[in-house]
């Protein structure tokens, strides 16, 4: 699913331009202890824009001893990863080359970035060259630790954008009007997900709000 990045930034009310090499944090200050949260727009890697709901207002990952004080919906990861259109095109070319050469096929292994500074510098180079991607492809969408299937991206993304407009972001509301969404579920008892679990989710804001830290306006 393709997404217009600059349109998203405008719609969510960010008053700064977002481009590769930059990280912006939109804060949602709430009354009461352990309720304030934020959404971090992290584009320090030129190939990947990560939009993540986080507890607290810094945009950084909290220590577990502090994070455990927040509602469950802010403890489990909720994030969206967008690959820029340039990167998506390169991946398609790599796959085509692999198949035509009669090799093993598939994608070429990506070069692992070792430091955030290197990521930012690489992204900054693209900005100075005037190469600022306007669109990206949703590569991964996770809500409260559950990875969504591609067929759920459109509805969940619309819900997420609507949440970003408001005075607070409720992870549970990203699930609204979405069914059969889980691509990878985490079993109980400490078992690891294998990716073939089948999970159905029924959204009921009245029944679930209390469990996931609903807050009065």
Question: Which short descriptors sum up this protein?
Answer:
disordered C terminus, 8-stranded antiparallel beta sheet, single chain, 217 residues
What does this entry look like structurally?
With 217 residues, the protein is α+β, with helices and mostly antiparallel strands. Helix content is 28%, strand content 22%. The chain is built from seven helices and eight strands; from the N terminus they run E-H-E-E-E-H-H-E-H-H-E-E-H-E-H. Strands 1, 2, 3, 4, 5, 6, 7 and 8 form an eight-stranded antiparallel sheet that branches. The C terminus is likely disordered.
Q: Percent range for helical residues?
A: 25-40%
Beta-strand content estimate: 15-25%
Low-confidence regions: 210-217
Terminal CA distance reads: 33 Å
Rg result: 19 Å
3D shape? globular
Average pLDDT value? 76
Q: Quick one: biggest sheet? A: 8 strands, antiparallel
Secondary-structure element series: EHEEEHHEHHEEHEH
Number of DSSP strands?
A: 8
Structural class, from helix and strand content?
alpha+beta
Helix count from the secondary structure assignment: 7
SSE layout and pairing:
Blueprint: E1 2-4, H1 5-11, E2 23-28, E3 37-45, E4 48-55, H2 64-67, H3 72-75, E5 78-84, H4 85-100, H5 116-128, E6 135-143, E7 146-148, H6 153-165, E8 182-184, H7 205-208
Antiparallel strand pairs: 1-6, 2-3, 3-4, 4-5, 5-6, 6-7, 7-8
Short description:
The chain is α+β, with helices and mostly antiparallel strands and 217 residues long.
